[in-house]
Amino acid sequence: MKSVLSNLIKLQQIDTRLDQLVLQKGDLPAMIERIEEDLKEKQDRIAELNAQIEKLKHDRKMFEVEIEASKAQLKKYEDQLFQVKTNKEYDAISTEIENKKIEIEDLENKVMQTLEDEEQFVNEIKELEEETARLEEQLKEYQKELKEIEQQTSEEEQQLLKERHVVEQTIEERFLRQYNRIRKAKGGVAVAAVQRGSCGGCFSVIPPQKIVEIRESNRIYTCEHCGRILVWVED
Ligand SMILES: [Zn+2]
Per-residue pLDDT tens for 145-203? Predict the structure, then answer.
């Protein structure tokens, strides 16, 4: 049991140092992730707007073709108006001419609408592009900072991970599970040393009899208050 406890202590020391190394990176990884997500969202929106602009251009071309056809028809009706023989015919053609004019006006309005929409989309794209340029610059800066930190820490980190792997192999699965569970629940610290009669994790007092047992290290003792694994470490 003594070896289990000393291996757990080793594991805790490695993990604490690894946590410190992660801490050195600060908010950078999270900030980088957030910017990347933001960038992705904006780039998707730009692509969507470009697709909509393509559609508007296509629609406009169609409306313009329709306008040309309607104008040709209008011209035909207007020519016919000079050749009518009866009032009834005159009225009928006049009505057709009015309808054609309304149709053309309606199509022209639609063309205008596509132009207005397109302008709005183009402006939105411009804004988004300015924002993405700014974000990309920020991202590069953060990535550079992070890289610098990682260059300083990665060697130690790799070494620690190797050591961790070796130590892990020496600990029984059930103890590892217990260790990991407590570590996760207790801010990274699963193993606490007895310090001046108290738990080094939560500082609650440990009964003297229990301290004696912990020193003997015949089994795993946990703090009644915080649940951390208690160990005795000689000074
Ligand atoms: Zn405790």
Answer: 999 999 999 999 999 999 999 999 999 999 999 999 999 999 999 999 999 999 999 99
What are the respective helix, strand and coil percentages of the chain, to the nearest 5?
75, 5, 15
What distance in angstroms lies between residue 10's CA and the mean position of ligand 1's atoms? 19
* Calpha distance 166→168 (Å, rounded): 5
Same domain for 69 and 50: yes
Eight-state DSSP code of residue 205: B
* 128 & 25 share domain: yes
Q: What is the pTM of this model?
A: 0.66
- Ligand 1 centroid, distance to 215 Cα (angstroms): 16
182 neighbors 175 (Cβ within 8 angstroms): no
